[in-house]
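User: Sequence in, structure out. Go.
Assistant: Echoing your sequence, followed by the structure tokens.
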Amino acid sequence: MARGRTKKHIPERMERCKERWFETPLMNKGQWRQICKFPEDAELFLEIGCGKGKFCCEMAKKNPNALYIALERDTSVILSAIEKAHEQEIPNLFFLNTDANLLENYFDENEVSRIYLNFSDPWSRRNKPKRRLTYRDFLVQYQKMLVNGGSISFKTDNDILFDFSLEEFEFCGFELSELTRDLHNSEWDANNVRTEFEQKFADQGINIKRVVATNKK
């Protein structure tokens, strides 16, 4: 399969949107609301793997009183999301161009209200499950970051990853709800915001799996 074209002038384009992303997020740990000029009681939502930003942009616009942070490790991909938020002038959405393995360096305990994991890499190759974002080592990190009663919303097209994730959530003591293997024909679809991948899979007739895992400390 041919690789996608590399975006041109990335540094210059990132600089034009510098109010949307943080170059040194280490300074933000425990202070996201203060730095982003939000009330201390504002909910903080984190999307891990935001892709080109369709989901986080729509969600931030739907919930203007919440603070949204979207993470993506691929600079050329997150650039599309950052530019989209910049052009639409979404004041409550900010970005991190980093890897999920470094999350504990950027978010303090009890700082996040909800985490969104949308169509994460299933890492289907042999001996790769520990790289899945729903593997128990990641879930333990999320539990520390989440407030008591905070939750993870997880969506995927992959049956194997979904079954694996349900087991990992239960192993780590999360309470599961809103579980469906056909989201677009479920009672929860009315409030569902589709990602780019989600729409692509839906157009192919692939059922979308979803579950909400609530943190019970």
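User: And one key feature?
Assistant: The longest strand covers residues 146-156.
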